[in-house]
Design goal:
The chain is of the alpha/beta class. The protein has one domain: Rossmann fold (3-Layer(aba) Sandwich). Helix content is 48%, strand content 21%. It has helices at residues 12-24, 35-45, 61-71, 86-94, 107-119; strands at residues 4-8, 28-32, 49-53, 76-81, 99-102. Strands 2-1-3-4-5 form a five-stranded parallel β-sheet, with helices on both faces. The chain starts with a strand and ends with a helix. The model has no long low-confidence stretch (mean pLDDT 94).
Length: 120
């Protein structure tokens, strides 16, 4: 069984797309539409990598990232955002996110980044 990836995005279409892409690559994937689901899955399955959207209703990406790091300080996280808020991106880096992607992202770039992060 390959590495485990948790996809956290409130947009169903993006979750399905990323799920298909990464399952085809041989990864075990989990999906969460909100922060509470993401934290529950993270506690239960301890994913090797989290693809985390920043703009999620309820609990935003920064809060989810902080709580993921509480669960496992070494959890690898890649941020996805449709907004170019540099201060938010900087804060995610300080909180331990490995990199970020602006939406719409190139799926091949994201796939390469996932492979690279999981090899760290």
């Amino acid at each position: 069984m390959g590495s485990k990836i948790l996809i956290v995005d409130d947009q169903y279409g993006i979750r399905i797309l990323l799920n298909e892409v990464f399952q085809r690559e041989g990864y075990a994937t989990y999906q969460a539409a909100n922060g509470m689901q993401a934290l529950e899955i993270a506690r239960k399955h301890r994913p090797d990598l989290v693809l985390l959207d920043m703009k999620i209703p309820g609990m935003d990406g920064i809060e989810i990232l902080k709580r993921l790091k509480d669960i496992d300080p070494d959890m690898k996280v890649i941020i996805m955002t449709a907004y170019g808020e540099l201060d938010m991106i900087q804060e995610t880096k300080e909180l331990g996110a490995l990199m970020h992607f602006a939406k719409p992202f190139d799926i091949d770039d994201l796939r390469a980044a996932v492979k690279k992060c999981l090899a760290l």
